[in-house]
Amino acid sequence: MKSVKEILKSSGLDANPHNYYEKSSLNTPSISSLSLQDNGSNHANFEKALCCPICQGRGIYLEDDVAHPCSCMQTRKIENQFRNARISRDLMNCRFERFRLEYYRSEFGDQSHSDGASRALQAAKNFVHKCQQNPHSLGVLFTGPVGSGKTFLAAAIANELMEAQLKVLFLVVPDLLDELRATYKSQVNELDLLDTARTIPILILDDLGVHNYTEWTRNRLYSIINYRVNEQLPTVITSNLTLDEMEEYIGVRTTSRIIQSTRIYRLTVEKDIRHQMYYEREKKK
Fold this sequence. Notes:
- This protein is α/β, with parallel strands linked by helices.
- It has twelve helices and seven strands.
């Protein structure tokens, strides 16, 4: 019977473990260096992981003719989680510890912005903790104007839950509506998309705002929300709409289900956080 070394050699692969770096976490791309890098570098780091210096991309390394799983496989697994969750590279960087309360300070001494942000941050952390204890927790609705940090908190929740090995789907509502319209003539694809959104253990719906809702898309949104309410599956929603505006755009019955199944937190700022970040970045030049 051939050893693993002989099998690899017969395939033209160098199986000598001494030709690789020693098995060490220092030589393995870490989760933080792979999944949480600045924008534009994640793909390059993932390519490096595929050519891991320990296993050369094979997923195993050899010691005394015994094959062992390489630690880079966990990194690949996490990358696949992000891909399956449909979270963008930019949002992979969102973490609770990076949520900056100084963006909510008021030039006029108004403490309400900072207090609201602190409550929302704590609610997001509590939600992550409860999801790990109970798969049927209440969801969260973050409301507030554009640039108030709603998406950041939603993405931070997604990242924390995925690192805890929980299944998450992150959907941007305008993109979801476009996909649903694209499946209008293809019932199978539509059912696949709807079933995934309905049944995923944790769903995040980002940017539920003023869109071109038709009766058809409203019914699809209601189908997703109503199913999740009935099955007690938690949903995180971000929206720049008030509850009255939400009733107007997505309908009374869907809004009612959202109120029933979530805790609601409002984020406000005196100045759009993206504008504040822009000025900070330009000052450094």
